[in-house]
């Protein structure tokens, strides 16, 4: 009965989407030849669009597969909002009600500030900044907000209104151990009153039938205390927590199975459906293995509770979906990296016992993103390497993708003004302008393909989330960065035909990385704040460590010129060797589960910010009016149907504004209760 009702609802929604009149005023075709990448700019954010090149070359069956997978991904949108904060769905509903119904003075500064606040909340999938994790504070008064609620007959509990303006729940993910990782975090992964030690004890008590193939305990659940005061998990599955949205995901995945490109792809999708129906983490592992083996075909996807960055204890996976189309030309060029993965492993500076003797199953593709949702949207990665389970990587390999059209969109919308301001001299600028884009793409490939796949944990040592705890994510990202950095300055790249001048590509890569790690990424940090985001931490601890260790030989020199600070690399060969030393140590920390060494490395080099340099960087950057963060609108895929209701084509269309897409999503994909 429930399935039949669900089918009727979905069938109706397909017909509505296909109706031109419903969206004729908000969704329109865009001329590819005159594509405008920039959509909106507010606060510290710029919203862009990306194209789907080659869409018209796909068969109708392939277009249907992309569409069904995209609908599955979007159907879980509410999940990431609720995961990010327990009141986010209530807050979003209230904010959008005000936005749609307010009839008052929209030229007033308070209203303009309200619109900016709403857009920031949309962009972050909640009231906490998508990168800093700090609560986004409104730049209008609580009295004004209350008046907006009254004027639009919008309801929001007074205590939630207070939270928007006070210091309660002011950090989504807290990494300051002294405050308590869970008690100091607003993330909605753990129930009230649960301590870090209770969580560690609970999951350490979970047993694995095979200790060499541990289950990812806690990945798809919220941990709560029941009425008896005992810990129990609310599983994210059909019939469980988030079940209403997951049922929608399942519906679209089942339609995707019907148009799968081949049997392995269909079998993987069936296992993903089974996982969503049962919540079994054993099935999740089986799905990941099947997904890894499904390498043929032009369409692929990511869907599930995957990355654990938002859990300070590293157990819970944030909901995420990306639908992607193979970029045949760039994938062919980059395939040589995955084919030579064993060479990179054998020739790395790791200790012999930490090297993999048989690097298996790495598949690397440059892909074209067709739809993103959950934790991947609006702020998106540019490269992905999955699965995350180390034992699956070791036995079956991994899939790595670079989102080529996303990288291209960043490039089309960017400029060189900031480079010229922070680069030491014209030679550094010229290197970046000529080789920087290639160096960045190669670093992404080496990071994802070789970096995450390299190294092995010593037998008997627990998983990084168990041993390295809150430092596991930044150590892993830094380790993968270091693999890429080590090989970017290597003649092997030229031997493989990937570059024409390996030294200049390597020099450009090193210049850009050090400049960003020590200076320019600081534009994303508010004065007086520590660095907390895992990737930002890793870029600083990598850069600061090699800077310090090379000071005696002036490998990297800090120079004051015309009242401005620059970091100039004097010896690229020695810097290459320092990256190798740090890679060796970082892998040792992971392989041995050395928590104290991980803590010392990150806390010493990756957390604190030089306030004087920070102030200078912010002042120098302010003249460009550049947004520190960028994200993307998704294309809206619109099926065209005939009189029989059959899909005859699927068109790529775009909203006219960021607000239109966000309101469209809330109307079409709001499946969850406001409290879960």
Strands side by side in the biggest sheet = 6-7-8-10-9
Tell how many strands the DSSP assignment holds. 15
Q: Helical segment tally?
A: 27
**Proportion of β residues?**
5-15%
| Cα-atom radius of gyration | 25 Å
Helix share, percent: 40-55%
**Uncertain spans:** 1-28
Q: Please outline the major beta sheet.
A: 5 strands, mixed
Structural class determined from secondary elements: alpha+beta
Instruction: Please state the oligomeric state of the protein chains shown.
Output: single chain
Compute the average pLDDT: 92
**Cα-to-Cα separation, first versus last residue:** 23 Å
Overall body shape:
globular
Account of the protein in words:
With 676 residues, this protein is of the alpha+beta class. The chain is 49% helix and 13% strand. The chain has a five-stranded mixed sheet with strand order 6-7-8-10-9. The protein has a three-stranded antiparallel sheet with strand order 1-15-14. It has a three-stranded mixed sheet with strand order 2-3-13, sandwiched between helices. Strand 11 (556-561) and strand 12 (564-569) form a beta hairpin. It is globular, with a radius of gyration of 25 Å. Mean pLDDT is 92; it is low at 1-28.
